[in-house]
Amino acid sequence: MSSYGMMSDTDIRDAIKNNEICITPFDVNDKLDKRLTPVGFNFSFSRFVVSVNQKIFFKIYEKNDERFFFLTPGDTAVALTKESIWVSKNIGGTFHSKVRYVALGLGHISTTLDPLWQGQLLISLNNPSKRKIKVIIAYYENGKWEESTFITLCMYRMGMAASKPSDNNTARLDTLYEIIKNTRLKTKNQQHVVGIVKKIMEFLASQKKNYLSDPDNMEKDDINTFINNHKALMGEWDKEYPKIQELNESIIFIHRLFKLLPKILIVLLIVILGVIAYCRLDVRDFISSVTVFASAILGAVIGILWGKKED
Fold this sequence. Notes:
CATH superfamily of the largest domain: Deoxyuridine triphosphatase (dUTPase)
Low-confidence stretches: none
Order of helices and strands: EHEEEEEEEHEEEEEHHHH
CATH topology of the largest domain: Deoxyuridine 5'-Triphosphate Nucleotidohydrolase, Chain A
Strand content: 25-35%
Largest sheet: 9 strands, antiparallel
Helix content: 40-55%
Distance between the termini: 54 Å
Radius of gyration: 26 Å
Number of helices: 6
CATH architecture of the largest domain: Distorted Sandwich
Number of domains: 2
Structural class: alpha+beta
C-alpha cells in the first residue's frame, strides 16, 4: 500500500494494477507513454470543444499536420478529454495548466477531482488576452494523429476515505448541454446540434447501471466494463462528429453574418448620407464634393479598424 500524500508515477501504476484507479485509453505497461509524468497524468483533447460566448462547437481546422481551433479574446472554451478516469474513495486530485498553453496567453486552470469520480472530464480554457490564440489539439506524426495533452492531474492518497462520492454528473455533459442550448440564435441546425448532445446524454445515462462503486474487492471485470463503456461512448461521439461539424459550418456562417450586419449597415448608412449630401444641392460645389470624399474616407477607416479587431 502506498503512503498517504502526493502520488508518483510509480504509485499511480501500482494503484492502477490494484484496481484503485482506472484511466482509459491507457496501457499501464507502456513505459513510453509520455502522458504519465513523475507527478501525475496529462489528459489530451478530444475534438469536442465548445465556445462559451458563441455557444457553438468550435470549427476544428486541419492544416500542416495539425488540428486546431482559434480562441478569440475574452472567450472561454470547454473541452471534453479523450480519456476517462475512475478513482477509488481514497484518492482525489488537483488539475494544473501545462506551461506551453499558458505561455500562449491562455488563463490558468485550477479545479479538483473528487474521490469516486468516473468518466470523461470537461475542462475550460480562457483567453484573457487581446489577441486570437491558436490552440493545437492534435498533430500528425509517424502516420497517425496524436492528441495534444493540455492539463495535468496530480493525484493524492488520503489518510481517510471520503465519506461521500462526487455529486457531479459524469463528463459534465449537463454543463455542455446548457451552454449550447441557451444560444440567442435558435436556428434549425443549432437545435439539431442540441438534440445530438441530448442524445449522447441519454446514452450516457443508460450506462449508469454499469457505473463503478467502491467495494473493497473491486474485480478486474468491473474495470473492464468501465473501459468498454468509455469505448462505447466515444463510438457514439465519433458517429455523431461528422453531423456536428456539417451543421456547425452553417451555424458559424449565421453567427458571422449577424456579427457583421451592424457594421455593414453603418458603412451603407455613411455611403447613403454621402450620396444624399452630394445630390441635394443643385450645384455640385466644393462643399458637397468634400462631404462625399470625407464619407468615403470615414467608411474605409471604420472598415479597416473593424477588420483589425476581427484579426
